[in-house]
Amino acid sequence: MAKTRVETDSMGAVEVPAQRYWGAQTQRALAHFSAGAGRDLLPREMIRALGLVKKAAALANEELGLLPNALARVIAAACDEVVSGRLDEHFPLSVWQSGSGTQFHMNANEVIANRAMELGGGALRIHPNDHVNMAQSTNDVFPTAMHLAAVEALVQDLVPAIEALLKTLRSKSEDFNDVVKIGRTHLMDAVPLTLGQEVSGWCQMLDNGLKRVELSLPHLKELALGGTAVGTGLNSHPRFAQLAAKRLAEMTGLAFVSAPNKFEALAGHDGLVFAHGALKSLAVSLIKIANDVRWLASGPRAGLAELRIPANEPGSSIMPGKVNASQCEALLMVCYQVLGHDAAVTAAGASGNFELNAAKPLIMRDILQSARLLAAALRNFDEHCCRGLEADRERITELMSRSLMLVTALSPRIGYDQAARIARIAHAQGLSLKQAAVQLGLLTAEQFEAWVRPQDMTRPTL
Q1: FRET partner for 176 with CA separation of 20 to 30 A, picked from 6, 47, 146, 159?
Q2: Does residue 316 carry a catalytic annotation?
Q3: Is 432 known to be catalytic?
Q4: For the whole model, what pTM was predicted?
């Protein structure tokens, strides 16, 4: 059996592997774009999205009477195989290529055309440009697939992961609401709060992050398809954009619509930049939460040790019995990567000139990887850390009772300056606050006991 076959495009003939469905343009791209070859490939989410877009386009063109039923049927069947993942090995191209995504797009056109002809028993002639790409351009197909893949990644993967962690932490907040502990500002002792109140702050940060992600979805559900090369819709039917968007909404169960202005949809990717900004904001919140957990769990005997975390795996190759906050560290590294991606997405999003943004593959790669990494790290952090969080009540009570900042409760009664004297004397002489207050003659022991009640300091008191 021959190892290669000859495929042609507008530039001539090219030999391609005989067992692959791609054609001449894909083979040329393999020769010309070697950065990331074999490693940094088109994400599975985008392969799926391109299959959906191509199927929607074929069905819309069939409905408009522009694509014969026989061709539309086998093209749609080939697209279904692309969507399912059966043809992933026929998408070999690296992300680092044309900024429009042309090579990715033609890879999809060629694979679908060749597989469709095979499904048709060889009786049909199906052209990757004339039939699979009818009424389309890379410039509207690729951003449409980007939006579709991003929405699915956010709605189906990331949002549920945020919601699951939020549910866990809300439960912990309720469980810990009676645990009065010392607060900390500037990493130094501050006035008391409950551990439940502290965790409630994490919950609100996550809830805010979830709302920001959801706020990005309406713009992402606006699709460029139908704008063709520069946004005018040249070579497409006037109803094509609406029909194709409707088909995509039906196929995905998501409320996709045709973008109201195709010029913006092709040349600018502010919606994707905004969406990744929401991921960056979420990452910033998660960095704070993960660091709080590992600080509070530090120890177990020479740190704060207010929280106990699950012992998932040995923490050292040399120190027996050591357990580390590894889930926190994994989440932190993911978040740092997201911050890096955001810088790249921001620069790439600003790379629109006239009628086209020319950094689409980078935007697509980074937003999908950020969503994927965050979702997985959130699930791990939830399942292997947060669900097993426990409060060390004895340690929390010990640290709180020794804090000099309990003296703050006396400020409304004896004044800030006198309260500060008590704290200074207690610290300098190694006394308790009560001992220092009585020694200074500022109040009696009974008054101190009545006025300095940590549990009362966790709410407004005046």
Answers
A1: 159
A2: yes
A3: no
A4: 0.96
